[in-house]
């Protein structure tokens, strides 16, 4: 820390950074009270004003620490670490109410005004240059705070997208119980590695949940099968077998069958059927159920 | 810390006889010595009681590595020599996926979803060969 | 190493088959704590079991070092298995799929490699072998509480 202060002293003789830091520590309470009335705090901490004030104190403390390090322009300063989580949740809460990122940014910027006023009021006798140096440092510091908020909000957004991507994968892989002991997964669209993984896991889980003796993977809706996808299919078949069930792959269109032959892949151990209906018929017969067509007149053709 | 774990030989896997089937329930984390002893115990039990089938319930097993996988395969192979058939029941999905990724698909091993399904599998095969020679269910 | 190492979390000896159980239980616990999914946990524990057994059987014993790592977005678990055994003269062959034959050096190496995200091996005949594997949690962190 001594190192940072020395560095700051070298840059500006008056060291406005640590002066702003000292100011923040002195005016911590007033500033937190003023900020509690600003939209960013007021609208997030709606239950009690005390909560907003406390949240304000935490932010003031963090800023005072960063300023004390003489690194008012550094969003990576360790002083921000303790408030990062809180700031990100505040930004996320504002974003949920429909605020655009730039509006959130404006709300953070609005915190600068009361801080500025308090600072100037403290320096009635200082030289114009001194006042300017201090307000500049404060402005830079508040700009850095704004950066930190936007940064955390952005990474929060990325995490949200990741989560939604995973959820979408799961939604896109419905497991259907076709019959007592028979489940099916109709696959639609391109299979990449991540999706294949989800498909495998979902199918295996459902085999356990439903105690299904047969699992049907229907790939009618899959446009292409490359060697990687074929490999995933074979792994699924092997894993289902290890669990004590049987996997049937249905809906291999002629073009795909040709690709599989071209790729030199051996699906020899995999049970395949032309359509989902054929696969269901196969599984039903293996379970000992017979499918009969009702004859005209209601009598069963048997 | 050493006392948290059973010493080799202090614990063995219970081998239960159920009609003409041996029921073996594996649970938790087996150390290698225990798995190897299990292999001997089962072979001995087949000889002693002349059972026709062995069901190994692994629904309580969290991981099967290549060692345990090979032990299971060898139990089945050995039992076959003694005219008994082996069914491994209840393998967890995560274990199955891992074994496949590991490259161990255990083609010679008969599997079932649960102990009940395994007994049914052995029973049905029995019914299919009334006094006759061994016939496979598959 | 690319990620910022966060310090060694544990160092376990590999001297007996009971130690293998300890290694598995430790890796299970550490990966669960880091938020690995069940399948990823199982894969990592199985890989650890294979590698620890290699250390024991072919390396004549050694140790494993577990380190929690992070790359800013994901958490990871890094395991380093080291022994002062005879080393592996033909790494390429050891890594090829010899697992079905069930004999020879490097048993389970190729399989273990497929179960983890990163795999590195360093072996010098007469000096010893070090295998380092790392797996990462799925990218999306768990939804946080609050608000």
Q: What name does the CATH topology of the largest domain in chain A carry?
A: Globin-like
Look at the structure and give the mean pLDDT of chain A. 84
* Strand ordering within the main sheet of chain C: 1-2-3-5-4
Count of the separate structural domains of chain A: 2
- Uncertain segments of chain A are 5-13
Give the % helix of chain A.
55-70%
- Based on secondary structure, the structural category of chain C is alpha+beta
CATH superfamily heading of the largest domain in chain A: Histidine kinase N-terminal domain
**Amount of beta strand of chain C:** 25-35%
- Supply the CATH architecture of chain C: 2-Layer Sandwich
The radius of gyration of chain C is 15 Å
The main β sheet of chain C shows up as: 5 strands, antiparallel
How many H/I helices of chain A?
A: 13
Gyration radius of chain A (Cα, Å) is 32 Å
Roughly how many Å apart are the termini of chain C?
37 Å
**What does the average pLDDT of chain C come to?**
81
- Based on the structure given, which CATH architecture of the largest domain in chain A is correct? Orthogonal Bundle
> The CATH topology of chain C, please?
Heat Shock Protein 90
Notable characteristics:
heterotrimer; B: 138 residues; alpha/beta; Transcription Regulator spoIIAA; disordered N terminus; disordered C terminus; C: 147 residues; alpha+beta; Heat Shock Protein 90; 5-stranded antiparallel sheet; 33% helix; globular; Anti-sigma regulatory factor (chain C); HATPase_C_sf (chain C); HATPase_dom (chain C)
Summarize the structure in words.
The complex is a heterotrimer of chains A (302), B (138) and C (147). The model of chain A is unreliable at 5-13 (pLDDT under 50). In chain A, helix 2 runs antiparallel to helix 5, helix 2 (16-26) packs across helix 9 (128-171) and helix 6 (81-96) packs across helix 9. With 302 residues, chain A is α/β, with parallel strands linked by helices. Chain A folds into 2 domains: 2-161, Histidine kinase N-terminal domain (Globin-like), CATH 1.10.490; 176-286, Transcription Regulator spoIIAA. Chain A is 62% helix and 9% strand. By secondary structure, chain B is α/β, with parallel strands linked by helices. Chain B has 4 helices and 5 strands. Chain B has helices at residues 32-49, 66-81, 93-102, 115-127; strands at residues 15-18, 21-27, 53-60, 85-89, 110-112. Chain B has a 5-stranded mixed β-sheet. The longest helix of chain B has 18 residues, at 32-49. The termini of chain B are far apart. Chain C is α+β, with helices and mostly antiparallel strands and 147 residues long. In chain C, 33% of the residues lie in helices and 31% in strands. Chain C contains 4 helices and 5 strands, in the order E-H-H-E-E-H-H-E-E. The A-B interface holds A 200-201, 204-205, 207-208, 211-213, 235, 238-245 and B 87-93, 95-97, 99-101, 105-106, 109, 111-114, 117-118. Chain A: It comes from Streptomyces griseoruber. Chain A: Residues 1-13 have a biased composition (Basic and acidic residues). Chain A: Residues 1-20 are annotated as: Disordered.
